[in-house]
Amino acid sequence: LSVVGARAAVGGMIQLAVVDREAQVKLGAHLMDMSVDQGVRVRAGGRLVTAPLGLAGVCVGRRTIVGAGLRVAPGRALPPGLSIVPPLGEVVQRIPDGLQGTVTVSDGRLVPLER
């Protein structure tokens, strides 16, 4: 269960999240709600406290954009007006001629996968 504000858009996976007005969670983004090895801790009153039942989603501020493929740890509050993008080294920017077979991204460039 999540809350999505007016004119907000969610294409990613969210659970126990609050997405404010005009915010966007792009396809492939994940807003997490639990920690596997310990309960989620959230900031309250200037200190970290354990969330009830050990679960807490992510709050996305007004007009904040969470880019495709990003993962946000549980219990985080993203301030309004941010545009969060994946590291440029993971985004395909250069495609050399003559590629064949299986390739991967290295520093923004497609390169043959070494096995």
Structure in words:
By secondary structure, this protein is mainly β. It folds into two domains: 3-84, no CATH class; 87-115, no CATH class. The protein is built from no helices and 15 strands. The protein has strands spanning 3-4, 9-10, 13-14, 18-19, 24-25, 30-31, 41-44, 47-50, 59-60, 65-66, 71-72, 77-78, 83-84, 103-106, 109-112. A four-stranded parallel beta sheet has the order 1-4-9-12, with no helix packed on it. A hairpin with a 2-residue loop joins strand 7 and strand 8. The chain is elongated. 21% of the residues are buried.
**Total separate domains:** 2
Structural class: mainly beta
How many strands, what sense, and barrel or not for the largest sheet? Answer: 4 strands, parallel
**How much strand?**
25-35%
**Average residue pLDDT:** 94
Write the layout of secondary structure elements.
Elements: E1 3-4, E2 9-10, E3 13-14, E4 18-19, E5 24-25, E6 30-31, E7 41-44, E8 47-50, E9 59-60, E10 65-66, E11 71-72, E12 77-78, E13 83-84, E14 103-106, E15 109-112
Brief synopsis:
With 115 residues, the chain is an all-beta fold. It has strands at 3-4, 9-10, 13-14, 18-19, 24-25, 30-31, 41-44, 47-50, 59-60, 65-66, 71-72, 77-78, 83-84, 103-106, 109-112. The protein has a four-stranded parallel sheet with strand order 1-4-9-12, with no helix packed on it. Strands 2-5-10-13 form a four-stranded parallel sheet, with no helix packed on it.
Main attributes?
115 residues; mainly beta; 2 domains; 4-stranded parallel β-sheet
